[in-house]
Amino acid sequence: MELSVFSLLFLSFFAFSVSLVRSQTSSDSCSSNLAVSSLIPFYSSSFHCLSAWSSQSFTLRYAKASNNTWSFVLSAPDTNAYISIGFSSNGKMVGSSAMAGWVSSGKGTVNQYYLGGESSSTCPPGKGNLNVVKNSTVIVSQSSVLYLAFQITAEQTTPYLVYAVGPRGSLPSSSGYLSEHRDMSHASFDANTGVFSDAEGSSGFGKEKQHALLVILGWGVLVPIGILAARYFKSYDPHWFYGHISIQTIGFGLGLAGIIMGFDLDEDEIDNYDTHKALGIVVLVLGCLQLTAFLARPNKTSKVRKYWNWYHHNIGRFALSFAIGNIFLGLSIAEESKSWFIGYGVFLGVWVLIAALLEIRYWMTRDD
């Protein structure tokens, strides 16, 4: 029974981990023909193709149509957000000009932007240094893939391309101003030689995701497993105690590292961030109280032991409840894909089921 319990917990966490890395959106690739080639008047079979930003499944097709005319088709998974490609002389977003597009209610919108700063107000639509060919801009969504096409005139393209993707499910307003990107990247690019570098996202697996994984693994996975060990396996004395302490110590350490990393994240003006941060502090304080309680644990024969047990058990329940709630809040704030929610939800579901079965066995054994 005990082996099967931990096997199920391991399998559920394995399923959770797999779901985090499994893509749930359709994507284009250079190995397939362009699905919307008939909708792009300047497209030809001579287009070059490259995997522009692998972590976001961005694919770029380009060609030099004439002496000074360059054609581009950028494709990316349609997450009900804008996609953008910018042209930069130094690899930085600020100071570059970009083309961005999105589809809302079947209607496509493409604008040029001058990226004058990091805020929405400093990136006005309809501005920029790109000489966009008239009537060349196209954006369509087909089979859950966005295709942004346009032509520019230039003697040479810039040595860097800058990519960005907007927050899921949040399209620009009618004014055309873009909300802050969910992720961005840059890559070197030489259209004449075909030499390029794969873009690396600013947060593809940066501090935000590292923070999330540390907290989920520590507070969201190991701590709940340690609780099961303490409540239902005391017949294996003293192994249950050492197992409980080891699991909780590792879980606390990972959660602490995640919380500390979270303090270093720059999330100004993000909705509910202050709430998320405050809950993280509450969880950290409750975890420290648990650590203090362990160090001050009275002997089993002590008269105050029952009060200590009440304190230890309830502080632990509060800490776990706040931690789980804050995990889901954090995933929502970060606008992570459904796979994160589903994966962690599967683990919690299996954990609750196992806890219920063990609780039933606990009371049946106790009655005996």
Give the SSE map.
Layout: H1 2-21, E1 48-53, E2 58-64, E3 69-77, E4 83-88, E5 97-104, E6 107-114, E7 138-142, E8 145-153, E9 160-165, E10 183-190, E11 195-196, H2 207-232, H3 239-263, H4 273-295, H5 305-333, H6 338-367
Antiparallel strand pairs: 1-2, 2-3, 3-8, 4-5, 4-9, 5-6, 7-8, 9-10, 10-11
Verbal overview:
The protein is an alpha+beta fold. The chain is built from six helices and eleven strands. The protein has helices at residues 2-21, 207-232, 239-263, 273-295, 305-333, 338-367; strands at residues 48-53, 58-64, 69-77, 83-88, 97-104, 107-114, 138-142, 145-153, 160-165, 183-190, 195-196. The strands form two sheets. Strands 6-5-4-9-10-11 form a six-stranded antiparallel sheet, with no helix packed on it. The protein has a five-stranded antiparallel sheet with strand order 1-2-3-8-7, with no helix packed on it. Strand 5 (97-104) and strand 6 form a beta hairpin. Helix 1 (2-21) runs antiparallel to helix 6 (338-367). The chain starts with a helix and ends with a helix. The model is unreliable at 1-5 and 18-25 (pLDDT under 50).
Short characterization:
With 368 residues, the chain is α+β, with helices and mostly antiparallel strands.
Fraction of residues in helices?
A: 40-55%
Helix segment tally: 6
- Count of DSSP E strands? 11
How much is the average pLDDT?
84
Global shape: elongated
Structural class based on helices, strands and sheet pairing = alpha+beta
